[in-house]
Amino acid sequence: MKAMLSLPSPFTWSVIFGALFLGGILGRSNPLYSAALAGGLLMIITTLLRWDELTVTAIIAVHLYVDWYLGLHIVAPLMALLLLGFFYVARSPRHPWLMPSAFWLWIAFLLLTISPAIRGALMLYDAASYYPSDILGALLMFWSGLLIARSYVQVRNCFKLLAALGTLLALHTIIQGTTGIVILGSSHYDELMLLTSNYQIWQSNAHRAGSFFVDPNWNGTFLGMIFFLPFGLFVESSTLLAKALYLIEMCLLLIALLFTYSNGAWLSFFAGLLIFIFFVGRNNYRILMPVLFFIGSEIVLALFPAQIASQWMHAQDPTEVPLRVGAWLTALRVIEAFPWTGVGLGYQNYLERSNPFRVPQEYVMLAHPHNSYLEWGAMAGLPVLCVFLALLLFALWQAIRNWVDCGPVFRPLLGGGITAILVLSVNSWTINGWTLPALAMPGWLILGLLASPLLRRCDTAMQTGEKQQTDTATRVQ
């Protein structure tokens, strides 16, 4: 943390102010030029200063707002590719370079998805969505996480920054949910908001808040996943000030989750609470967590009765579950018809090619199966689905092995990250979590941080240091 937050040199400060000044001049003709130039130069500075955790968090923020919300798609994957290239060029004993384990699985994933990506690219939007972010972007972010996690300090720093980003998005969601105002909003999705009646809840005047994710289900998935990062930091921290900060972040994330009214997000969140009881790694918290959950539930019921009532109304929507089940059944019929190749990776392509197989329960044509695993199978074929599951399960196994080896001090930290990944995986049964670019790239980054073999080297070094200290003390005695 000390290295990450070291003060920039006077030269660096001059470059920063120069970038802002130049960006301000260009911004008089077009504000987009100002933001792009200033942001690009700041990214170069953070990269050269080796503020790696800040750099990758900024890439996630750019990916969400610029790529997803504004619709530019490939800016963050290009940034991640350049960052990975910098990591290779700047490799050293302090910043080692390594390849992902079972790299052949990643090669197979990259190759097997080329044909479905080409066949499904009926429009530029789809061509820029799947392969650059969900496939190549997944590898780039996972690989970056492996290289950044040189020790638990880097993992902690990255989780702190991702938790802070999640808290900012939670505040954005709360403001949207209470006022209807989208700060830094864009007209890019105005037509969609009209078609969905601004995501108004059935038989209610409440509107669901999607923030920069647009769809409230995606927003709820992200908030429920990120919640467990400050939770792990809360348990791991030893100071009251730090615990108070993480508790505030958790409360804001939980309140924001209320304004999404996402049934799937809440189900996966509750599953995450049960999972974290195991991965928290400390018996006192395993006993304390159910008590805290009960107290928190009573507080939420008392302070947010209108939101709870609207959530219950949304859960009773008679069209919600049948339509979702219909989407799954349609996807299963598509897989049965195209088991090896799928119909192609693309929303418009799936909308057209799945229509002959649509079941009556799917009374509205849907552009994806609302299930990431069925989406890989229906759009790209069962071989791609098997490779994806192999990559996900192998990385999870590496993360759990690191959790077992790290000892009780760091287990809450890694346990919070593992729970976040499992929450995303559970929610991907009800929504396209692992196949949505805005969710997949942060998910693979977290998984890379957790699965890094550099953490095991850190464990070995720590154990060696402790043994040397013990031997020295014994000789002195």
Helix-strand string = HHHHHHHHHHHHHHHHHHHHHH
What would the principal axes of the Cα set say about the shape?
A: globular
Mean pLDDT: 87
Structural class: mainly alpha
Beta fraction: under 5%
Weakly predicted, low-confidence segments:
1-7, 463-477
For the record, give the distance between the C-alpha atoms at the N and C termini, rounded to a whole number.
35 Å
Sheet with the most strands, sense and barrel status: none
How many structural domains are formed by the residues?
1
Rounded to the nearest angstrom, the radius of gyration is 23 Å
Number of helices: 22
Strand tally is 0
Q: What percentage of residues falls in helices of 4 or more residues?
A: over 70%
Structure overview:
- The chain has one domain.
- The protein is built from 22 helices and no strands.
- It has 477 residues and is mainly alpha-helical.
- The protein has helices at residues 10-27, 31-48, 52-69, 75-89, 103-112, 114-120, 124-148, 152-179, 190-195, 216-226, 228-236, 240-260, 263-279, 283-303, 305-315, 320-337, 347-353, 372-380, 382-405, 411-427, 437-451, 454-476.
- 73% of the residues lie in helices and 0% in strands.
- It is globular.
